[in-house]
Structure formats: C-alpha cells, structure tokens
Amino acid sequence: MTNLPTRTIGPFTVSAIGLGCMNLSHAYGEPATEAEGLALLNRALDLGVTLLDTAALYGGGANERLVAQVLHRRSEFTLASKCVLDMRGGQRILDGSPDAIATTLDAALGRLGTDHIDLYYLHRLDPNVPIEESVGALVRAKEAGKIGALGLSEMSAATIRRAHAIHPIAAVQSEYSPAVRNPEVAVLDTCRELGIGFVAFSPVARGLLAGSVRADDYVAGDIRRTMPRFVEPQLSRNLAVIDAYDRIATEAGITPAQLALGWLLARAPHIVPIPGTRSIAHLEDNVAAATLAISPDTLAAVDALLPPNALTGARYAAAAQAQIDTELLTGEELDG
After folding, report:
1. Would 15 be classed as within a structural domain?
2. 336 lies in some domain
3. DSSP codes joined into one string, 129-175
4. Please, where are the H alpha helices in the chain?
5. 333 domain-assigned
6. Which keywords does this Swiss-Prot/TrEMBL entry list (predicted)?
7. Residue 325, class by beta-carbon neighbours within 10 Å (0-12 exposed, 13-18 middle, 19+ buried)?
8. Span 98-139, pLDDT tens digits
C-alpha cells in the first residue's frame, strides 16, 4: 500500500482523496461487472486510498455487497455507508424514521458481512421526521456498537447545527467542485466552526470536469439524463465554459480531473474529495492529485472562470431537488 497525504474526519485519519463507490453499481448506466468493480477497489487500496464510501441505495444494496469483498483488507481503510435513502419493493424510498434507519442499518451490516460500519450517514433529510429523531437512531446504533461515527449528507447549516447539538457529527457530505459551489454559502464555515470534516462528492461534477461529458447521449439509466445542466440546450452552453476550463488544466500540465481535485484540496484542510470512477487509469490520475502542487495563479484562473452559478441549468430535476436541504446559491436556477 502506498502512503498518501492524510486529512482528519472526526476520529478518523484518511487519505486526502477517498473513493466514492456509487458508480460501480449505480446511477451512470450499466454497472461495472463484479470483477471490474473488485479490481478497482483493490487497486484503490493498493494506491493508498483509505476511505471507501458506499450506501444502501446504490444498486439496491449491490454496492455494499461489492465493497464487502474487500473487507478482508478492513485494517487498511475507513468504511462509510448511508441510510434514509433505500430501496424497498423495487422503489426508491426516503424514510428517516428511527425504525427505518435501524432496518436499513441491519440489512447493510448483513450485506457488508460485518458487525460495524465506521462512519454512517443520514443520506438525506426526511422533512417528515425531525432531524433530532433521525440522529437519535444513529446514537443508539453507536451505543450498540454497530457504527462508529455519525455523518450527514446534503444538509443545510441549520440542520447540521441541530444534529450536532444531539451528538457530535464527524462528517458532512455534499456535492462540491469548482462547478458546484453550494457548500460555500454556509456549510463549509459551519463545519470548520464545529470541527466537522467535509466530504466532497461529485468533485469532478459528474464527469463534466473530467473530460468525459461531450454530448447528452447518455446510456439508459444514467441520472444525468434528468439533470437540466447536463442536457441540451443547457449542455452546449456549459461545454463552452468547460472548454476554457480544460485549457487551464492543459496549460498547468495536469488533467481536468486533477485540477478539480487539487482545487478542492486547496480550499480548506478539512475537505476530503471522494471521486468515483470505473476506470483504473482514471483512478490512478485522481489519486495522483493528492500529491500535486497547483500554482495559485492556476487556482485563481479556475475561480475567475467558474464563479458560483457559472453553469446554466438546475443542479437537479425538481423531484430530486425536493430532497435536498443544502442551501441554494443566490439566483440559482431551479427546474420547474
């Protein structure tokens, strides 16, 4: 195993860049085969990645079953998963009730083949359940030894403070990249103030900042087909901006994905990006970003090109946005 620079999330010391496991089983069309997924997970661990992030929702449990196959290397990494969003009867559900959380957690432990998950997140805020009740369920799970630390995903500063008042929160996870700046409204400062680690998912903007989105010809099952900024006519306008971003990366001698990851690491020491990929070559490029030195001039050029709201089109379709508690940017577009 290679040693990478590290950062702190709650009680855990993890590699400065982790691995989001979602797209091995979920969300971007045909999933990786079991052999492909397992090869990528093992390569990530070999490269020194020490944070693996999964969830009950991903592939209806398939992703947790995949991650279970590297738990013989458990001493090498911190295991994170999530509840509240789940699949029930073949349908996606949002249920933050204590009973649902307990049910999802026990099923996750079974799929993972373990009795303990290091870091367990509430995947989304259930507006029908007070956050205090959902956090209380995690506290009881911690007391029972089933989880080690508590996390929140896509939640606002106000919700984070309410949750943290019940029990210390170790990590908050939200979408953050040079192209998606919502955490800058209030969440990053709140995490810094409260000593909470911030985990940046989709740090290369679902491929937009990694050179992998050039047209809206996504395969069936790809969630970008429902995201306004990833389809026409918005996509062409956004790609004109991304072309300029790609030129900044080329001039710096790094890949667009490495530029995005380096930009995130430079923002604050409590940020840990978790890019996902099915490609071992892309994985190796991503991990290499943990040790790159990117000049202040290059970072400033990214900021100048991509201020908040630089992209055209909403981040989520209306139904998905309804499940997001994270603050909106001033003037942010909403679908519908």
Report:
1. yes
2. no
3. S-HHHHHHHHHHHHHTTSEEEEEEES--HHHHHHHHHHS---EEEEE
4. 34-46, 62-67, 98-112, 131-143, 157-166, 187-194, 234-252, 256-267, 280-288, 296-305, 318-321
5. no
6. Oxidoreductase
7. buried
8. 999 999 999 999 999 999 999 999 999 999 999 999 999 999
pTM metric for this prediction? 0.97
Distance CA 324, CA 273 (A): 20
Q: What residues are paired with 177 via a beta bridge?
A: 180
- For residues 202-209, give the mean pLDDT: 98
260: its two tokens: 């995005």
Contact between 2 and 47 (Cβ < 8 Å):
yes
Alpha-carbon gap, residue 84 to 74, rounded angstroms: 25
CB-CB contact of 255 with 285 (8 Å): yes
Can you give the CATH number for the domain in which 108 is found? 3.20.20.100
Q: Which amino acid is at 272?
A: V
Rounded-to-integer distance, Cα 142 and Cα 151, Å: 12
Q: Which residues are catalytic?
A: 58
Quick check: 182 and 174 in contact, CB under 8 A?
yes
- CA-nearest of 220, 219, 213 to 242 is 213
Task: Please tell me the distance from the alpha carbon of residue 248 to that of residue 178, in angstroms, as a whole number.
Answer: 13
